[in-house]
């Protein structure tokens, strides 16, 4: 089990949030990028999230194709544990988010220039 998110990890989480990710998803991605693979309870503890928050984050991450899950057989009775792993590394996810944000910025700059021209500021 990997330790809780450190200061650098928390800064990466903040920047991912500013790049457009949900807070819980950002925390899960950063934790999984360190841990490699983890069960829900490990993610809850290390990323400081509640079980429903982890479940919702995993649902969205699976829909995006960014995480895969596998069932681990437990000894005895009860539901099997689910283990989660990123399907791409943190660099790839960050690169996609950065490019999307840069495209939004380019569009916004273009729109602002057009507005300036239309209202006579330029």
Automatic annotation (TrEMBL):
Signal sequence segment: none
Protein name: Transcription regulator TrmB N-terminal domain-containing protein
Coiled-coil residue spans: 91-118
Alphabetized UniProt keyword annotations: Coiled coil
Listed InterPro entries: Tscrpt_reg_TrmB_N (IPR002831), UCP037373_trxn_reg (IPR017185), WH-like_DNA-bd_sf (IPR036388), WH_DNA-bd_sf (IPR036390)
Residue span(s) of domain Transcription regulator TrmB N-terminal: 18-73
Family matches, as Pfam families: TrmB (PF01978)
């Amino acid at each position: 089990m990997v330790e809780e998110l450190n200061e650098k990890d928390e800064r990466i989480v903040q920047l991912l949030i500013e790049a457009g990710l949900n807070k819980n998803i950002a925390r899960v991605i950063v934790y999984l990028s360190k841990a490699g693979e983890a069960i829900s309870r490990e993610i809850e503890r290390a990323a400081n999230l509640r079980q429903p928050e982890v479940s919702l984050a995993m649902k969205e991450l699976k829909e995006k194709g960014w995480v895969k899950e596998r069932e681990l057989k437990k000894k005895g009775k009860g539901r099997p544990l689910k283990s989660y792993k990123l399907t791409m590394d943190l660099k790839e996810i960050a690169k996609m988010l950065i490019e999307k944000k840069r495209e939004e910025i380019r569009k916004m700059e273009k729109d602002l220039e057009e507005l300036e021209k239309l209202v006579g500021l330029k």
